Amino acid sequence: MSTSTWSFWRRLWAASAPYLGIASERASFDLPGWDPIVKVSLPEGLTAERLLDFKAFVDWQACLKQSLEEQTRGYHPFHSQRFGLRAIEVKSFSTTDKFGEPPVGRILFVTLQAQIVNDRGETLPGHVFLRGGSATVLMILHPIGKPEERYVIMTEQARPAAGSLRFQELPAGMLDKENNVKLAAAREIEEEVNLNIATKDLVNMNEEVLALQQEEPMDEPLRTAMYPSPGACDEFINIFLWEQSMAEVEIQALDGRLTGKVAEQEKIQVRLLKYEQLLQRGARDGKTLAAWSLSTPQQPKAAASVDAEDAHHAGVDYLKATYKFGIHPRERSKDDEVLGNLKVEVFGHVLDNPIGISGGLDKDAEIPDALLALGPGLVEVGGATPRPQEGNPKPRVFRVASQDAIINRYGLNSKGADHMAVQLRERVRQHAFDNGLGYEAASERLIMDGDAGVPPGSLYPGRLLAVQVAKNKTTPDSDIDAVAGDYVYCVNRLAKYADVLVVNVSSPNTPGLRDLQAVAPLTAILTAVVKEAKKADRKRPPPVMVKVSPDEDSDEQVEGICTAVWASGVDGVIVGNTTKTRPAPIPAGFKLPAKDEQTLNEVGGYSGPQLFSKTLSLVKKYRAKLDQGTSQGESAPGTDFAYSSSGSKVIFASGGITNGQQCLEALNAGASLCQIYTAMMYGGVGTVTRIKAEMRDEITKQRQSKV
Fold this sequence. Notes:
alpha/beta
């Protein structure tokens, strides 16, 4: 009998024995360097020497060992009941040998079960698939003399594991034993694209981004890489950027090139795409999405040449994609938690800070969690209309760059209240599932009724989610019952998912909408909304706020709106919205560039720093008028603000707020919270953190001056 035949029958016997009721003794050894001893059992055909020569296994157990040792530190969540590795059972392994041959070649993959237990008998998930690290490259090519044009390289190859014979992805490959990630990346480009590239031209985007985040040092020895499936697999992917100029004819020659290593059964075809097609073609490839998100500029000013609305959509897509893979921008500072000096009480909730993100940025509730991760105390989504509507024709968003301002005439474009309700419902149920409550209506009910320990809208302690509703453009303004019906429909669909409901009667881009701020129609609409909100299918209905125009600023107009607020039972006012006026440039006497001067002629609502003085004035005016309507006293003021939460009606300040000092001024003028929008469009994802830091600095200065 030949050696290969004997090996075949031995493996068949080992695999069949358990099913025949015959015990099959497995080889085992003690894992070196572990105390207490960790016993490793092996399947047929695998020796201790071969397993310990498999770098992925060696690296994995070394990383796990160091992470377990970190439990001795007092701050570790498992410090009081530490876990330990007791045993490892290697289930199976794969090698470079062809199908049916004895497994004597280089090991590629190992599947094992690790027994990780503490003294209570509690276990951690221990099913592990080991394959080691990989490298992938986003290749961006510019034709010589055309720097504005960008092409990217993808590959198309068979991926039977995904059930595909034509899977499109970025060039990628596993690391060799020496673990040099740049060499591996360059090697894969040579094998899959037939291009020789210098390792010095490769930029490790994982390292670049983590350096920018200034994350606190991690005690665990994790790689500076992306872990695409850490729930069961050790794989880490180093993501590189390679950007070069080439002759256009050479770039075009890459398209359709056939490549791949015959010895590894690879059949690869190179695909050349315009950069704008990257997300569409690579939407199923996690490497593509991650590489795109890491290479996308995070500061909107870098995209100043892009249409303002396209930049808005790109920003939403960026946050959506990065949040899905857990690599989204987020606030790293722990100041809200540690210092606690920006806490405010709003509608009975103690918020971590008084900064909110206004409605309009996330119009259809696609990225509330990604926005909440940026550190605000409140995020407002919407406005949602009863039926989907396109809004006004494009172009409809314009930058006034010299003033950090925007003019928009979106016209409340919305996918509709039903679409938003589905988005928010799935988000709540996913939260319930992730926290062990199940994934059904009963689980949703636990959260809606406040029994899960988080606000039912935001799902985060110390944060709130506001949902803005509006009427459809086609609903006649003269038919108040129909208008009220629009708002009631939205409230019926969305109230249960909101911590705060916002009624928008002040958009300057929906004809006739601002006419609804007159006392009679406004009272009728708000009364209907409050009545419907109280029917929300949960224990505690959401409070209702009305969003008013900064252009309705006369004493009579403000008093009329306040009268409607009191008569209807609305809980507060958002002051205000964009303005139809064109404020004077700042600083005083500044001469606008010709382009910005021309942009000011565009029809639409203006937003930007120039609105702050009017916002501040209106906050004071509304505070005085609203407080005249009640005999209740104010609640106890916060440590550093005149108003933590008003005993009468709550005010949110919105309009022109760009820094911490302005936020403090608005709070001390009578607002409970300040909302930002345009400041984020120009300042980027770190704007909330910056404003909070400025507030803390200003508070410290004020305290020191008092001393």
